[in-house]
Every structure is written in C-alpha cells, then in structure tokens.
Amino acid sequence: MPFKKDFLWGGATAANQCEGAWNVDGKGISCADICTGGSYKQAKRITPVLEEGTFYPSHEAIDFYHHYKEDIALFAEMGFKVFRFSIAWTRIFPTGEEETPNEKGLQFYDNVIDECLKYNIEPLITISHYEVPFALTQKYNGWASREMIDIFTKYCKTIFTRYKGKVKYWLTFNEINGATGNFGAFLSQGILNEGTTDFMHQVDNPKQRFQALHHQFVASALAVKMAHEIDENYKIGCMQIFATSYPLTCNPDDVVLTQQKNHIMNWFCGDVQVRGYYPSYMKRFFKENDIEINMEPEDKTILKEGCVDFYSFSYYMSVCHSADESKENGDGNLLGGANNPYLKASDWGWQIDPKGLRYSLNEIYDRYQIPLMVVENGLGAYDKKEADGSIQDDYRIDYLRQHIEQMKEAVEDGVDLMGYTPWGCIDLVSASTGEMAKRYGFIYVEKYDDGTGDYSRKKKKSFAWYKKVIESNGEEL
C-alpha cells in the first residue's frame, strides 16, 4: 500500500469562490468582490466602483457561509481527513487596518473549524487566497507597498492566536508564483494599475510585480516564524502553481527555453520559500529585465529564518515550449505555451496530463526534500443532470483516477507525499472565468450563471467513487 496510513485525503475550496455573504456580519470589500462574471471567451472584468445590475460571482457564490454545516457533513460522509479552505481577510479586518478584528468574522471560522473537528477532519487553512482587502489596493496599491508586510503579519498573529490548538496546517499565499506572470498582479497581489479593465490582462509592470513578490516573501517568512513561536505544532506550507513544462522538440533551443521558463515560473518562489534565499539564476533575469529588488538589510535573515515546513501545489495541466514563437499559441492552456500533440484537453482547453503529475512530484521532491501535498487538482467540466436527476460524471472519475494512479507511482519512486485535496470538492465559482458552469465538485450545487438556483446540494456519481478511494486509502480506484 503506497500511501501512508495517515495520508490526508480531502478536498479544497476558497472563500471568495464559495462563501458568498460578501457584505454580511461586518465583512469588507475584497479585490475578488469587484470582479464581474464572465465566460471562457470573455474573462472577468474589474469594476473599481460596484456597478448596479452587474453580476459579481463572489457576492453569492454557493453560500457556504450559510450552508457550511451541511457541506462539511457531506465531506465527512465521503470520509475526508482534511478540508482545505481559506479565510476571507476582510471578514477579520474589513479594510485591513482596523485596530481590533471583527469578532463575527473570527467566530464564523471558529464555527467552521469546530464543525470539521466534530468529524475528525483536519482544517488546512489558506491565509491569503486571491482576495486582498480592496481598501489596501486603494491606499497602497496592494503588495506593491512594503506597508503590507506589517498589515499582513498582524492579520496572521490574530488568526494564529485565535485558532491555536484547533488547526495544525496553514498555507501563507495561494499560488504565489502566479505573480511571476502578468495575470497574477491583481488576483494575488491586489495591484490595480491605471487603465485596467480585465484582470487577466493588466497594464503590466514587471518591476512592480517582482518587488511585490519580495514583500510577500518577507511577510510569508515572518508568518512562518511567528506561527512556530505561537504554537510549536503548527506546520506552515507554501503554495505554488506547478506548471509542468516540456520542450516541444529535442531542439536544444527548445530545451534551454523550457529550462528558463521553469526557473521563473516553477522554481523561483519555491526556492525562496523553501531554501530561504534568492537563487543565482534570478540575477541574470533581473538584469536583463531591468528589475532591481529593494531589500531592507534584515530581509535576507528573515527569509532564511522563515522557511516553510512543507511544499504544496496545484496541478491541472502541462505545457510545451518552443523557441519558434509562432508555435507558442496553445489554445485554452491558461499558462500559454504550445499544445502537446500527445495529450487531450478539457472542455476549457486545459491539456490533461496525469503522468506529468508523477514527473512533477519527483522533480519537486528531488529539489527540496521536504513533504509535499497536492492541494489542487481537478477537472472543470459541463455537468448535466440526467432525466432521473443524477449526474453521471464518469469523465471526472477517470481524470482523478489517472492522477491518483500517478501519485501512487511517485510515492513508490520515493516521494514523501502528505495528502491530496482535489479542487472544488463542491461546485463553486471558477476563478479564471467567474462561471458556475465550469464545475469541479463531487457535490452539485443548484446555482447557475443567470443567478437562478436554490443552492440545494446533490451528490454526483464521483461522490460515491471518492468515498471508496478514501476508505481503501487509494487502493480501490
């Protein structure tokens, strides 16, 4: 049996994609709250002033805020050992800068955590998951300002202290390395540059993005150190997008280009957060892109003293790279690159590559030698209800089965794998398009892109399948 006896099987969500109740019980406005709905062809827009008659998916989402007991009971029925969710920063500090935290927000997460513990489900909490308080964007332009470090660590101290003894596992920033590309500045850094109306295509400022990343690295390291001081049982992880990349051909130009892309996208942030220092290959990148990172004298020590305990990542697809720019036109692949002729794609054009997960797990573990966790992996698909009301999502079962099989292979290869939390264990709003139509979950939610739906929950075929997977510790697939 390759998986450990205490392997953490579960599922993952994010507050802005599932909670709803966007202005309830003192919650402030987050960056996610000003992103409009969209479609695959027309991604979400940012409206810095809330517009009447405009659909904002996070405002209602699937109303986990009022359904959390029902949802966690369903997760328990599947046998979850862990539930990954995020805290909405603006529930705790509505503008980020209040003197005292919002008690109703703190109590809500007490309730969610207690509900998990009732079923012996470990909470795995993401501290910042794509929803910087919008007031901090307006005042400081988000993480572009060093002021954010103290604001963030105050937030961390509040929740680390409040939930001491109840929570063991934490992640600092969701998919922090998304900001190495120009689609990450608003989502993860709260940076809103003048002229921006489309959150996927900001007026880009690489100097600002990488400076903001430095501020996040320092804040993450300070949070890790603080967490260990508050509770020696806390385990703090980083969280990366792992964008597995292959050379399109064996042309050495393709191979070198792919290595360079991997350095920036896949390794840079992990190298800083796991090893505690900037890697040497970034010197040339910064020089050639006219980027100079402003560091305070103490920053190098902070990074070294705040290395994470484990490495977690999302894995959905792989990409290819070609030195021939005319071939770098992969349709649908969120991270660009060239299409791989050997792979099929999802309904949204994301190429499906289970073996790439085994390859990635080996590469990451060989590099860092700390425990790993796959905290996002799943298939966004159009689910339809049959005449009898059932949802026969065999395609999702096939996708997850193939990826779990490759996780098994990686464990046999010697990888120390802690757990697996497939993305969107219950249907929620898609981060990339703002749609409900792009469904991921084991549980169907009656909520639709036209705003209709009664929020009722229904088990899909994959629900019973995943329950067996967990019961058998991955043996019955």
Automatic annotation (TrEMBL):
PROSITE patterns: GLYCOSYL_HYDROL_F1_2 (PS00653). Belongs to the glycosyl hydrolase 1 family. Pfam families: Glyco_hydro_1 (PF00232). InterPro entries: GH, GH_1_N_CS, Glyco_hydro_1. This is Glycoside hydrolase family 1 protein. Keywords: Hydrolase. It comes from Amedibacillus hominis. One of its GO terms (molecular function) is hydrolase activity.
